[in-house]
Amino acid sequence: MPGTCVIGLQWGDEAKGKIVDLLTERHDVVVRYQGGANAGHTVVTGGETYKLSLIPSGILREKVRCVVTGGVVLNPKSLLAEVDGLVARGVAVGENLMLSDRAHLMFPWHLEEERLEAGALADGEAIGTTMRGIGPCYRDKVGRSHAIRLGDLYRGDLRQRIKKIAADKNRLLSALAGSADFQPIDPAAVHEEATGYAERLKPHVADTTAYLLDTLEAEGRVLFEGAQGALLDIDHGTFPYVTSSNSSGVGISSGAGVPARYLNKLIGVAKAYSTRVGGGPFPTEQDNPTGQHLRDRGNEYGTVTRRPRRCGWFDAVAVHYTARLSGVDTLAVMLLDVLSELPEIHVCTAYEIDGRRVTNFPSQIGDLRQARPVYETLPGWECDITEVRRWNDLPENALRYLDCLRDLVGRPIEVVSVGPDRDQTIFA
Ligand code: GDP
Ligand code: IMO
Ligand code: MG
To answer: I need a surface site. Which of 54, 73, 127, 340 has the fewest CB within 10 A?
Structure first.
């Protein structure tokens, strides 16, 4: 069983980092295959908290090789800052980090484009991106003519390419800015910075597709770490309020360059409730004291941007859809402890749209906007569960709640998390 995958089933921040960290022990390689510095994955161990963004969460364990593949958009500056931060805390980063020469690079024009477009409305509401240049960089990847990949940093024509792209980008930025100020791109400065990054990154640069295929053919154990969540998938999520990569299970093969035959086990990660950062419809949102209670108990503030996360009840219509879409075998239900003080807990079992009861997740944002959740109400357990370590020691009402999620999503629950620490985990 060489390939295991961890996929977020909601709108991101499902505590994928914690699950990846736990599973890393049993793997040789951990892979990040889509997204970029928009991700913020938290691992808490022995009282130490690590926040990882571009580097796979496997970096915290010795003897594990961490691979960033061609599906990721790489910001060299953030990556090197992350490496420096880890090294300063005594984490070894050397041969254990491989970066794909196919990965597309983030340049200052991407950040400036996103800044000038911020607040650009999609369907009347801002997407509320992380402002890490993700959309503009993926746009250039698909457009091809203005893209620069990591491997291009080592080609003789880099100066010329930057000069040509910068000239076009300055015209674009000027048009986007209109009468507002913008920071024109200086191609010589960009080239100088890029050659500095090229030198520092060189020991890590490799053809990771070949490396992963060799590893999998030799039965090496590979763990694929999803970023964001399936509802933010560019093709299958709540478009246009999504990110710019395939963040559901369907993105693993294309992002990593690994055929589906090696993806043997898919673990879907979901919070015991729902959160979302940024704009877009969120049918079970509780913009009220209950939502604030979840935000306080769950410390629901963005890892990357510190924005308060929108909070609401578990949406089984959405998670049933994303579990199917992602080919999930089992579920990890996270942050169950956050619900511990509530006397009653609601779970969304269907939507009402235009007077019709619907259990299929809508493909159109207009329908999702109109969706009124239909709830099943369960009794809370109203006691602390953060010290529980065995399934059967969970309170009866907590077990009842988990059974309800299992039945509605149609997948067995393999892991339950009752606190941020590695130890606060229950295996079924
Ligand atoms: P990711 O992006 O999916 O890796 O998730 P984030 O790290 O952005 O957000 C999850 C947050 O929940 C982090 O702050 C974790 O430390 C924390 N966390 C993880 N599991 C639990 C849990 O079971 N209970 C509580 N209370 N917090 C948790
Ligand atoms: P992790 O990996 C939660 C959201 C942004 C915004 C939308 C588009 O930590 O789960 P982008 O900057 O990607 O163009 O923003 O996607 N978003 C996330 N929300 N967790 C994430 O990552 C996210 N990455 C992007 O808030 O709504
Ligand atoms: Mg996160």
So the answer is: 340
